[in-house]
Queue: 2 jobs
Job 1
Amino acid sequence: MLYVLPLLIALALDALLGWPDALFRRISHPVVWIGALIARLDRRWNREGAPFARRRAAGIAAALLTVGVAVATGAAVQALLPAGWAGVVLTGIFCWPLLAARSLHDHVARVARPLAAGDLKGARAAVAMIVGRDPAQLDAPAVARAAIESLAENASDGVVAPLFWGVIFGLPGIAGYKAVNTLDSMIGHRTPRHEAFGWAAARIDDAANLIPARLTALCFALAGPAPRRALATVRRDAGLHRSPNAGWPEAAMAGSLAIRLSGPRVYANRQSDEPWVNAGGADPDSAGIRAALGLYRRALIGLALVLALLAAIWAAI
């Protein structure tokens, strides 16, 4: 509970400012620093032609080293901060770049605008910035689904999970989680290069997101127009997703908005026959993306109010 107020400050800064381009040009971004370490370890330790077991062991070591560096850095910074309100504010500032509420909203909004104008090419280009599927294979409803799925999944990965681990462990917790999430996004894939080396990254990410994904689903359900329908969709369809976690916020989003998500898609000319989430729902369009963004904003406001209530209760004790 000691870290709730700094995280509220971080969330407010992120919602208002995002991560300004001027700051990015000057100091880049902590996730970029983490990514540079992961890329270096991948180049040096993930040897093509090495036995599967050796590459898996190297991947475990790389994951532990990356998370360890992030946690140790966060702990060192936190230990150097002053006590009192100055420490609270500075902790919030250091946590600020480790949230992605504003950037996620803006990236998804950039898909809705060209789609609403009938510019499918522009919408495909915008959605290609946030999903890995082949944009050339996407029609308008598939573009909208991809954007909404990314919003739902990354609300957990980019906002709720960092806040969850930050509330429990402070700056080391949020920094460690971002390392875990960046590892998964870079090497946690079932590809010939990363199936062995990225095994640990994917498993650790699954564990770290187990509770946050379910909390995100609850936030979406409670912030939506039909909580019972959303929760029923979660109970029925969350387990259909190939990820043990991503299906929860996606199902809650689909049930809240009465749309269908997931379904067949193409990755690098490879067909992936994913099951539908809320199969009886309508196909979304640009208005569906805007509705999803509205639900996302209401969920984050509700989450911030809960954090504020926790901070007030802690202060009163």
Job 2
Amino acid sequence: MTLKTLSPEAARQRLDHGAVLVDIRAADERAREHIAESRHMPLDRLAAQPLPADGAAVVIFYCRSGNRTQMNAQRLRACVAGEGYLLEGGLDGWKRAGLPVVADARQPLELQRQVQIAAGALVLLGTALGITVSPWFLALAGFVGAGLLFAGVSGYCGLARVLMKAPWNRRVMAN
């Protein structure tokens, strides 16, 4: 049995009656924006340690867009003893419904987005320099592409490791 989706408005009503809202995103995603009443239990931690039984009969899971919770619905179902739901549209759906969120714009962008920005900028730079200065600069675009391919296959992203050590990320990663 998989989890059903719940509209943000219906989820709000369930929360008012004692439901528990669980944010399954990574810490760097949550630091920038989250729903105030939610508990933070990243997906990788939920697999190793199910939700604590605190008498809540209803549990609602959410991520940023709802895709991550949909893809992991069976896994999340195994973490719930009672009723379980997925928040339709995730945090984005919650905001579209006009419901409040806690936002801290001082927090850095999520690490995944930082990697996408840096990799895209390096590829664009390498291509532009390769066209205008020397074709040898195209090797930069090839190197970044090879790094992304390796990251996808191995699960290890060297660029993400470098960005985690950047000064603007130190505060979030330490929490």
